[in-house]
Amino acid sequence: MTHELIRVEDVGKTYGSVLALREVSTVVNAGEVTCVLGDNGAGKSTLIKILAGVHQHSSGRMLVDGAATTFGSPREALDAGIATVYQDLAVVPLMSVWRNFFLGSEPTVGFGPLRVLDRKKGKAVAKRALAEMGIDLRDVEQPVGTLSGGERQCVAIARAIHFGAKALILDEPTAALGVKQAGVVLRYVAQARDRGLGVVLITHNPHHAYPVGDRFLVLKRGRSLGSAEKAEITLAELTRQMAGGAELEQLAHELGGVDSESGAG
User: Residue limits of the ABC transporter domain (predicted)?
Assistant: First the structure.
């Protein structure tokens, strides 16, 4: 039986008179990827901020491990095993890979005021954790800014897994990447899923979501267009929902008209 980590039921969020999210429901299971899709302004960021403890929902309810929950801060979400990797990654480009891996939780040796960084242990732990995710770096002392965009994403994912995350929220991890690097990140998403984590993948690209996704939630202007499991929806239908269906057909018709007109001359 699949273990349910997070469930949101008819969750809504208002900011004063602005309705940012309305009656959104989905589930995040251990060992599965729930993909949340939508264009800019669809409500994706609002939803993940509720899951991550940045904001509290105004209506509906959120259950974590079966218990109704409202997080008061991101720290509370993290303590409950929900880690969020934002698009800006929260890395320090000029700092070494291993220091970025720990970033505030570095191992130390000694006692009291005599405590110092345990560099040897830190480098060994970071190198091993990254290798388990398939990133084989010769030198974890190199600045994290020298890594590719995909590799930096994977350092952030490996860090979350190492520090005990049960659910991993990834905010547009492939947005600024080329095809090859996006593929690298999606492989690490699949690895996190296969290690038993529940993954929430936020994206606007159905072609990135479909290969790794087990469940798909499409948002538009703060509302859900529906939630479906992979067996219930094709990539073509998912793309159609994302593009707005009728709007896409209208656009195709208009573009087809332009092509035929230009060809007539």
Answer: 6-246
Q: For residues 126 and 197, what is the distance between their CA atoms, to the nearest angstrom?
A: 19
Give me the phi and psi of 69, to 5 degrees please: -140, 140
Q: How many CB atoms lie within 10 A of CB 200?
A: 26
* Residue of 199, 235, 240 whose CA lies nearest to 26: 199
Distance CA(70)–CA(29), nearest Å, equals 19
The answer to whether the CB of 180 falls within 8 A of the CB of 192 is no
What the block records as the tokens of 34 is: 């729930």
Pair of tokens at residue 262: 């230009």
As a whole-number percent, the residues of the chain with pLDDT over 70 amount to 91
pLDDT tens digits along 178-223: 888 888 889 889 988 998 999 999 998 999 999 999 999 999 888 9
Residue 13 gets which letter from DSSP?
A: E
User: What is the separation, in whole angstroms, between the first and last Cα of the chain?
Assistant: 63
For residue 115, the surrounding DSSP H or E stretch is none
Q: Which of 216, 200, 229, 218 is nearest to 30 (CA)?
A: 200
Q: pLDDT digits over 142-155, tens only?
A: 898 888 878 888 88
Whole-number Å distance between alpha carbons of 223 and 19: 10
Q: Please choose, from the candidates 78, 36, 74, the residue with its C-alpha nearest in 3D space to the C-alpha of residue 166.
A: 78
Cα separations (Å) of 247 from 74, 86, 121, 209, 250?
Answer: 38, 30, 56, 21, 5
Place of tokens 């202007």: 221
**Alpha carbons 229 and 225: distance in angstroms, whole number:** 14
Residues 6+ apart with CB under 8 A from 2: 29, 30, 31, 32
